């Protein structure tokens, strides 16, 4: 479990970084927190000839939150995002979700952008980005572009990012209207990747009737799956909606696989149960929380 | 620190060093050594057609490549079968490097030595081995079916078939008013110590001697094995176990292929060579345990009393049998637990499969046996509508029936006779601790809230402290410190603390003055090893005996100096004094340090202390020789302990679980342990052993399994997918103790090392069954498994 040889680059600026990436092309790999990449290198499942360490790009170590959303720079660690009060105030779903991502030591090192770039279909943040229809900003020597989550994720562990592109930031938009969000999952052990996990957004109208119900899932497909479940509960009162119907609708639309930890049938069952629970909880939050302060009071998953 | 040491819950003496990163584990040794790596079989069953190293030879930093063809003399012979047994009619072992055939994924074929491990792995990747595939035998069912064979010359894949019987089981079952049959299944798990194996070897050509550091549980035996394999005189080989980051059984196996190859290469190259096992290698290149299928047929009366018990076990021994058939023997003898089985027959088939070899893992077959017996007890209770504790109590061996002879032969080749134990009292304590009688009220309350809860119980008896012997050496230095050594090894148990407590107590010195060395053949050459919860019993009693002899000598020498009768002397806080006299009273006391000086008459005064021991240093009785006939210089001695047979500890666990009606998640709400390992040397250390054992028990019950596919590939050979429980998965463990001393040894102690793990699967299966209302017969169980079981029971 020692990596094959590679050339190590440690650029000091974003410009230098993209220049190196352009130069080494497909033979290069970005090294961020290393929490996913280093095990792959050690097991020789990946053997890039060049590693471009972005840990010196302190310009990218930021979390910016405003009423529209939260933008996370490439060098912000999971823990930075998790602890950011401004981000929590506008989008509590991020903290609520990050608490399910690995363990504190890994969150201290692993980056949120790295997690998106890695595009693991079991990675919670990929699902959250997809759920919120967020965007990904990429830089290369040729310039900058921003793509939607839907365009960014192209398959398990694969994205539209080119070899010479650095993901500089991702933006998680705040959902519009009166909304409540929840992340919930079942993992075999505390901090493991989920056997099934779901993040939901419930939108209520002014009469506190359900106007929208969307859910995103991890570990039930090759990439983050987003389902619009509104039809099962549209127009129903937030505290009397038929959430189990939405759960059943979700279960019917998902097509997970068996693996060594769980059968497909069990995953489908989890999706149904977790969807039902999460939507009910999110609707409660939407009804009770109109301001950031009240959201705060309703507490996260913890 | 007071002199009172034995029985005190003192903190572990080794912790400050280990917790501040000052431990020296195998990989901390020999930074300049050449590194070894191995090309291992990627196939479960294949013939090696050719090995091509053409692409590898040019690599910068490569030192040597070895295959079986290079192994001269005894190094090329099959590895030893460590524990032969007459029932093991078809024992097979592998080679240090595979010869012609491989029988599991991970078997080493080529050894590469290079300037560092990176280069060594680069080279491994460039070596091409050509295989002729053979169909693999994976899983116990396939091994039983025997349509394919692992070893061509082993019919039916059966390495051993053994039957032990006491009484006429067929007659007892035929006459029993009730008979039940159970089919049970326990999957594979493994010791998985955090530190894998590792070997470092240095050949001293000037001295013609070999020094080997190895992360082992049996350094004296590794030494003997290496001397034999490498054809060196025993006294030219020394083997040292440095700090060892866990063993849990896997490191009792020896010599590992790597343990032969690293020293062999070091001698051949005249260079230091080191190999440190990585995690993936450990999963496929060390050993596993647990996998068994069991069939139980039990006859009992209306009260639930056992009349006849007939158990058949199909044991998966993996590719080879280097450690003999200890595991299934232990299963079939320890299965009996605290009960009188009536007529008993235990039959087992030990079967080859093309998977990693099976050798003892903490518990060593007992968890499987306990599972069989305790599932049976629950089945009887369910059948008769009796409380599960009542059925158990009715079958207990009573205290007044001790010693109790089961009429069987135990794993040490000696009769299975329980020495002591008070099972009814243990059960009583456990029921109080968990609140057995109050549980139904809790269940009703939980049910009203839509929750599903269940309670479970499991009892076990553990044969501990197996022979043949251990030894100990104790010496008082001239500065009053005490050094002690025992040959068996330590891998985290806290031996240095408990052995210091034993020695301190016997010698009357403060504990922190005693330093203990383990597992270093330079310090103590006679030993067996650390396994079977034997260290405290064996080395504890041996060191006590050595310390007692030293104490006698100290009293004699001090008596001469003080002109007092040794019988009137005592040692308190490192000072020999007339019994009852306050220390410091003039002429009435002498420090142990001074006694040590006087015990070694000197010619040369190299320091102040030594001056007093020279011929001209003080008053001498010139009518006697300086060292009396039959005496020896110095304040040191050696003692051995060899038990007539094993001593039997016992314990009972109870757990309350909650199962989610929707997600089938299983949570442990409470976990209670009552444990009796005889006299406690250090309650805190025993508690720690129980906690660690329970953690592994929970792992085996709810998380850990070795997932092989049909091709014999281990699909979860990493800590990402082999789910060892984290601290977050281990429940708070509530414990209580009984102390029923063993009559078999002077200290009255029994082993405690494995206890905590034994009933894990049994107690959790019992509790989950209780919560769900149907019997769990296969462990481990995951939420997904539980969900599948629920579906099977749902009317469609
Ligand atoms: C034990 C363990 C448990 C874990 N559990 C979870 C979990 O439950 N849920 C979860 O979501 N994650 C989990 N992770 C993964 C963790 O979240 C990682 O931190 C994350 O997936 C990757 O972030 P990183 O900064 O470490 O990226 P790295 O490992 O450095 O890189 C990962 C990949 O992304 C690429 N990359 C990284 N940054 C960029 C960039 N800016 N531009 C372009 N490409 C980039 C790299 O080239 C590489 O291919 C776990 C990790 C471990 C070790």
TrEMBL record, chain A:
SUPFAM superfamilies: CO dehydrogenase flavoprotein C-terminal domain-like, FAD-binding/transporter-associated domain-like. GO terms for molecular function: FAD binding; oxidoreductase activity. Transmembrane segments: none annotated. It comes from the Bacteria. The keyword Oxidoreductase applies. Keywords: FAD, Flavoprotein, Oxidoreductase. Residues 1-177 form the FAD-binding PCMH-type domain. InterPro entries: CO_DH_flav_C, CO_DH_flav_C_dom_sf, Diverse_Substr_Oxidored, FAD-bd_PCMH, FAD-bd_PCMH-like_sf, FAD-bd_PCMH_sub1, FAD-bd_PCMH_sub2, Mopterin_DH_FAD-bd. The keyword Oxidoreductase applies. This is Xanthine dehydrogenase family protein subunit M.
From TrEMBL, chain B:
The keyword Repeat does not apply. Keywords: Molybdenum, Oxidoreductase. Gene3D superfamilies: Aldehyde oxidase/xanthine dehydrogenase, a/b hammerhead (3.90.1170.50), Aldehyde oxidase/xanthine dehydrogenase, molybdopterin binding domain (3.30.365.10). Residues 616-642 are annotated as: Disordered. One of its GO terms (molecular function) is iron ion binding. Pfam families: Ald_Xan_dh_C, MoCoBD_1, MoCoBD_2. SUPFAM superfamilies: CO dehydrogenase molybdoprotein N-domain-like, Molybdenum cofactor-binding domain. Residues 20-135 form the Aldehyde oxidase/xanthine dehydrogenase a/b hammerhead domain. It comes from the Bacteria. This is Xanthine dehydrogenase family protein molybdopterin-binding subunit.
């Amino acid at each position: 479990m020692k990596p094959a040889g590679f050339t190590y680059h440690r650029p000091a600026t974003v410009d230098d970084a993209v220049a190196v990436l352009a130069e080494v092309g497909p033979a290069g790999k970005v090294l961020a927190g290393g929490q996913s990449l280093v095990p792959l290198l050690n097991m020789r499942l990946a053997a890039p000839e060049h590693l471009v360490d972005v840990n010196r790009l302190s310009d990218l170590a930021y979390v910016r939150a405003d009423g529209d959303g939260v933008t996370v720079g490439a060098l912000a660690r999971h823990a930075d995002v998790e602890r950011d009060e401004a981000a929590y105030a506008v989008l509590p779903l991020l903290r609520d979700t990050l608490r399910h991502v690995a363990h504190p030591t890994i969150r201290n090192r692993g980056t949120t952008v790295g997690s998106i770039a890695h595009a693991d279909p079991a990675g919670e943040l990929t699902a959250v980005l997809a759920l919120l229809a967020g965007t990904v900003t990429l830089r290369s020597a040729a310039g900058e572009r921003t793509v939607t989550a839907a365009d960014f994720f192209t398959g398990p562990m694969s994205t539209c990012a080119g070899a010479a592109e650095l993901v500089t930031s991702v933006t998680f938009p705040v959902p519009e209207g009166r909304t409540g969000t929840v992340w919930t999952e079942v993992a075999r052990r505390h901090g493991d990747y989920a056997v099934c996990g779901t993040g939901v957004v419930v939108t209520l109208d002014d009469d506190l009737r359900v106007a929208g119900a969307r859910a995103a899932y991890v570990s039930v497909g090759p990439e983050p799956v987003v389902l619009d479940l509104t039809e099962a509960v549209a127009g129903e009162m937030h505290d009397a909606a038929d959430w189990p119907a939405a759960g059943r609708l979700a279960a019917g639309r998902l097509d997970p696989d068996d693996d060594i930890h769980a059968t497909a049938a069990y995953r489908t069952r989890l999706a149904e149960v977790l969807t039902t629970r999460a939507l009910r909880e999110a609707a409660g939050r939407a009804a009770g929380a109109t301001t950031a302060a009240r959201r705060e009071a309703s507490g996260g998953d913890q | 620190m007071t002199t009172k040491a034995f029985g005190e819950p003192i903190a572990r003496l080794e912790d400050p060093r280990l917790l501040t990163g000052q431990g020296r584990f195998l990989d901390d040794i020999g930074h300049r050594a050449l590194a070894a790596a191995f090309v291992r079989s990627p196939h479960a069953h294949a013939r090696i057609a050719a090995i091509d190293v053409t692409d590898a030879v040019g690599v910068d930093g490569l030192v040597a490549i070895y295959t079986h063809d290079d192994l001269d003399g005894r190094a090329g012979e099959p590895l030893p079968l460590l524990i032969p047994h007459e029932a093991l009619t078809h024992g097979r072992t592998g080679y240090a490097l595979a010869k012609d055939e491989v029988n599991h994924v991970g078997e080493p074929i080529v050894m590469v030595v290079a300037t560092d491990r990176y280069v060594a792995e680069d080279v491994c990747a460039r070596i091409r081995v050509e295989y002729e595939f053979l169909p693999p035998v994976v899983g116990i069912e396939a091994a039983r079916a025997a349509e394919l064979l692992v070893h061509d010359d082993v019919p039916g894949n059966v390495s051993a078939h053994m039957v032990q019987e006491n009484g006429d089981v067929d007659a007892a079952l035929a006459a029993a008013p009730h008979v039940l049959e159970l089919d049970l299944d326990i999957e594979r798990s493994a010791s998985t110590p955090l530190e894998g194996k590792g070997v470092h070897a240095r050949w001293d050509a000037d001295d013609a001697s070999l020094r080997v550091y190895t992360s082992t549980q049996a350094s004296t035996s590794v030494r003997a094995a290496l001397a034999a394999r490498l054809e060196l005189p025993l006294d030219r080989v020394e083997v040292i176990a440095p700090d060892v980051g866990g063993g849990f059984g896997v490191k009792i196996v020896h010599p590992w292929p790597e343990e032969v190859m690293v020293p062999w290469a070091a001698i051949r190259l005249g260079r230091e060579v080191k190999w440190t096992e990585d995690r993936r290698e450990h999963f496929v290149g060390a050993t596993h345990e647990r996998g068994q299928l069991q069939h139980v047929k039990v006859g009992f009366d209306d009260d639930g009393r056992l009349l006849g018990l007939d158990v058949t076990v199909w044991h998966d021994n993996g590719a080879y049998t280097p450690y003999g058939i200890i595991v299934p023997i232990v299963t079939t003898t320890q299965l009996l637990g605290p009960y009188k089985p009536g007529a008993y027959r235990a039959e087992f088939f030990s079967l080859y499969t093309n998977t990693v070899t099976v050798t003892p893992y903490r518990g060593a077959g007992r968890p499987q046996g306990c599972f069989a017996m305790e599932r049976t007890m629950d089945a009887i209770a369910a059948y008769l509508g009796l409380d599960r504790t009542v059925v158990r109590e009715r079958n207990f061996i009573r205290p007044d029936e001790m010693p109790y002879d089961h009429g069987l032969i135990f794993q040490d080749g000696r009769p299975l006779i329980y020495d002591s134990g008070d099972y009814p009292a243990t059960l009583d304590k456990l029921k109080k601790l968990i609140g057995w009688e109050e549980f139904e009220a809790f269940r009703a309350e939980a049910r009203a809230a839509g929750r599903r809860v269940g309670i479970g119980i499991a009892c076990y008896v553990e044969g501990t402290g197996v022979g043949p012997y251990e030894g100990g050496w104790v010496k008082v230095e001239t500065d009053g410190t005490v050094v002690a050594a025992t040959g068996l090894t330590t891998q985290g148990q806290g031996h240095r603390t408990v052995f210091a407590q034993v020695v301190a107590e016997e010698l009357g010195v403060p504990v922190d003055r005693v330093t203990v060395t383990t597992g270093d053949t330079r310090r103590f050459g006679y030993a067996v090893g650390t396994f079977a919860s034997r260290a405290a019993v064996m080395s504890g009693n041996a060191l006590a005996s050595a310390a007692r002899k030293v104490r006698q000598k100290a009293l004699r020498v001090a008596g001469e100096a003080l002109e007092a009768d040794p019988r009137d002397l005592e040692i308190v806080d490192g000072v020999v004094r007339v019994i009852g006299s306050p220390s410091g009273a003039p002429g009435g006391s002498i420090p142990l340090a001074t006694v040590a000086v006087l015990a070694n008459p000197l010619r040369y005064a190299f320091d102040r202390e030594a001056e007093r021991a020279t011929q001209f240093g003080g008053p001498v009785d010139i009518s006697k020789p300086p060292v009396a006939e039959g005496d020896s210089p110095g304040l040191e001695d050696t003692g051995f302990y060899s038990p007539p047979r094993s001593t039997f500890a016992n314990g009972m666990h109870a757990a309350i679980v909650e199962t989610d009606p929707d997600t089938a998640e299983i949570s442990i709400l409470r976990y209670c342990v009552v444990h009796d390992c005889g006299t406690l040397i250090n309650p805190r250390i025993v508690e720690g052993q129980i906690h660690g054992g329970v953690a592994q028990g929970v792992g085996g019950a709810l998380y850990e399994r070795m997932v092989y596919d049909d091709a014999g590939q281990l699909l979860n050979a990493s800590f990402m997918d082999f789910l060892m429980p984290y601290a977050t998965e281990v429940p708070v463990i509530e414990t209580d103790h009984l102390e029923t001393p063993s009559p078999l040894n002077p200290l009255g102690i029994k082993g405690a090392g494995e206890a905590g793990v034994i009933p894990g699967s049994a107690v959790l299966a019992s509790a989950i069954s209780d919560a769900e209302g149907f019997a769990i017969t296969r462990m481990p169980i995951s939420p997904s498994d539980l969900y599948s079981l629920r579906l099977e029971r749902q009317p469609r």
